[in-house]
Each structure stands twice: as C-alpha cells, then as structure tokens.
Amino acid sequence: MNEKTQILIVEDSEITLYKLKAILVRLGYSVVAYDNPQKALIWLNTVEVNPDLIISDVMMPGIDGYAFVKHIKSTPKISKIPVILLTSQTDLKDKVAGLEAGADDFLSKTVSPNELELRVKALLTRAQEANLSISQSASKVYSVFSLRGGVGTSTIAINLAIAIAQLHQIKTCVWDMAVSSRQCALMLNLKPRNTLAMLAEWPEGTIEESLLSSMILDHDSGIALLPSPQFFEEGDLVTRATVELVWPPLQLIAPYIVVDAGNHFSDPVISILERCDAIVLALSPDLASVNATYQAIRIFDEMGIDREKILPVVNNIFPRSSLTTVKISEGLKKEIFAEIPFDTINMVKAVNQGMPYFMLAPKSPVCTAFSKMAFKITSMNKEE
After folding, report:
1. Is the pLDDT of residue 368 over 80?
2. DSSP 3-state of 348
3. Which helix (H) or strand (E) is 332 found in, with range?
4. Nearest one of 89, 73, 78, 2 to 43, comparing CA atoms
5. Are 254 and 193 in contact (CB under 8 A)?
6. Which of 93, 166, 322, 364 is deepest in the core (most CB within 10 A)?
7. For 99, what's the count of Cα atoms within 13 Å in the CB-facing half-sphere?
C-alpha cells in the first residue's frame, strides 16, 4: 500500500486505539490518532491535506460518532473523506443509524486484522474510483455578468448558487471575480484571510486542491465562497494566469460553480466567460441597462460565444418600469431567461445584515424566481 495513504483514527479506548494503529502501520499506512472527536475536528480544520480515510468509534464522550460523521459530511472541505464507524454494538438499528449519519462502512470492534485490511482497502479503492470519476466530469460553471454596474450581479450570483445547492443538495461554490467591488464576502458576512491575491507570485504549473480549499469559506446557507482580493490595490494581482491555476482544482471541489464576473471585460473575466457553460447577463428594466446589455451581446458575438449560452435576466430594482420584459426582449433580439421580482426593502435588509436574501425571506416570490432559475439553468446543461 502506498505509504502516503493516511488514515485518521478517533477512538477513546487506549487499548483499541493502539491495536488499530499497530495493524494499520504494519500494513504500510500513515496513521494520525486522537482520543476524542473535538481534537480530531480541530486537526481536520487546520491540516492542508485531508486524510484518505477516517475510522471512528461511535460511543465517545461529548460528540458521539454519529454526530462526528454528520459534521464531516456537512463540511465541504472534508465531506468527501470516507468514514468507517467502529463500535461494540451489534444491533442492526445501530448500523442503520451510522449509515444514515453518512458513514461509508460499519465495523465491529472485534473485527479481525484480515477483515479490517480488506474493508479498508475496498473503501479506499471505492473512494479513489469516485474521485477519478469526478475529476473526469467537469463541473458546471455559470457566470453572472453585466456591462452596467448596480444591477445586482453579486446578489444574483449568491442567491442563484444557494438555489442550486438546495435544489440538488450538492455543494455549490461562488467564485468572486468582481475584483473592483468585492461584494460577495460582505453580503455573506464572511471575513477572508486568504484570497486569490496570494497566487500572484505562484510559479507556472498547477496548485494543489488543498491549497485552493484553504482559501474557500463555507457559509451557513450551504454554499462556499472563493473570495476576491479584499483590498482595491490587489485587484490587478488577479490575472488570466490566476484563472488558469484555479480552474482545474476548483472543478474537483464543487460540482456547481457560480462566478460573480462583475461588470468589466477584464482579461481574467474574459477567460472565464469564454469557457463557462452559461452566462447570466444581468440587467435592470431601464434604457441604459438594456443598451449596455445589447452591447455586451454584440461583444460576445465578436468573441465567438454561442448565443445559446447567453441568458438575459431582468432584475427589477425599480417598483415600476415602462419597459416590460416583452419590450426588453424585442430590443435585445433575445428571449429573457428569467425575471426577478421587485423587493428592494428585503434586498437592502439582507445586504445590511450580511445575510443572503434566500435566508432572509425563503418563501418570497424572489426566492421562487431564483429556484425556478436554478432548475432551468441546470436542466439546460443536462440536456446538452
């Protein structure tokens, strides 16, 4: 077995811990061991490279094994790590409870060394095959863009991402490329420590998934954020080369990615727009915004971007407008993909509270519109 394969053991019984560690080390694995899940979680949250497998006891003081597994499976950074639950309980309902918590396998503490070896190898092989399958199927990437500021690209990106995450019960990442506004972290009340600016001096080549994961912040809504530089003067540090570095590992981290592409045709933004699966072209129902959107479509045509990928979305930031979606569609010579209802009061409240609109008013017409939009855009890509 590859000596780099690392297994984390969480077991409060010193005798069992020693026995498991001795067997696994003899089999050639690298082993990290903790006697309680709290210490293990601290280590998991700080380590750069995740272990390949976790073996955890069920009956432990404080956090039991079921809660430990649930926490792992609900934390994007570590959710893909396979987990074996180990217990002295043999009742079928205990095994069912473990599997329902998210465990990948369930073993008795009296397991023989030979069975332990076979089960560990089988689970590691299964996990490697799953990771290979994921790496071979690229994520779906949707960019939210506008040539006119103030139409809500960040609002649309964040709430569309939440709608996709809730619809498919799968990890969705917001990639903030609106480096001139940097609104996403503010709107999610997140405080980035590491951002894309740290890749400015990175040598040509690739970066590890674990390094990119260290920049990504998880949010209570179920989405994650890859933040833009938080200082205006760092904006120029994000280049096309940065996008080339980030693109491959980010697709391993999140099956769905929503990019806040801002409102400028910068070189790094163009490199994303050229390769994403769809472009949500945000506009408000006013003549200036419609004109800017028409110009953006013209530029996309010159870039050779398929018009089917361009999806105009009207964000009603005014209570009333003489421009209906029908008139806007006629002016753009393009069908309107979706329309977001007017609700400035709650939108402003959401921003001021650092809370996505989806969490503030989940049953509102606005959230219904985002949910329909999420279904429509993800279904479109499935059909393709």
Report:
1. yes
2. helix
3. helix 325-332
4. 78
5. no
6. 166
7. 8
Lowest mean pLDDT among 290-294, 331-335, 358-362: 358-362
Q: At 299, list the tokens.
A: 């530029």
Share of the chain above pLDDT 90, in %: 49
Q: Looking at 84-88, 178-182, 290-294, which range is the least confident one?
A: 178-182
Domain positions in the chain: 6-134, 139-383
C-alpha to C-alpha distance for 280 and 24, rounded to whole angstroms: 50
**Rg of the chain over all Cα atoms, to the nearest angstrom:** 24
- Enumerate the β-bridge partners of residue 55: 9, 84
Q: How far apart are CA 309 and CA 381, in angstroms?
A: 10
What's the CATH fold of domain 6-134?
A: Rossmann fold (3.40.50)
Query: In whole angstroms, what is the distance from residue 346 CA to residue 351 CA?
Result: 9
- The pTM assigned to this predicted structure is 0.65
Give every CB contact of residue 211 below 8 A, 6+ residues apart in sequence: 48, 249
Going by their DSSP bridges, the two strands 217-218 and 223-226 should be labelled as antiparallel
139-383 homologous superfamily: P-loop containing nucleotide triphosphate hydrolases (3.40.50.300)
Residue 312 burial (C-beta neighbours within 10 Å; 0-12, 13-18, 19+)? buried
β-partners of residue 34 are 10
Helix (H, G, I), strand (E, B) or coil at 226: strand
**Domains 6-134 and 139-383 alike in fold:** yes
pLDDT in tens, 173-193: 999 999 866 789 999 999 988
Question: CA nearest 195: which of 221, 217, 165?
Answer: 217
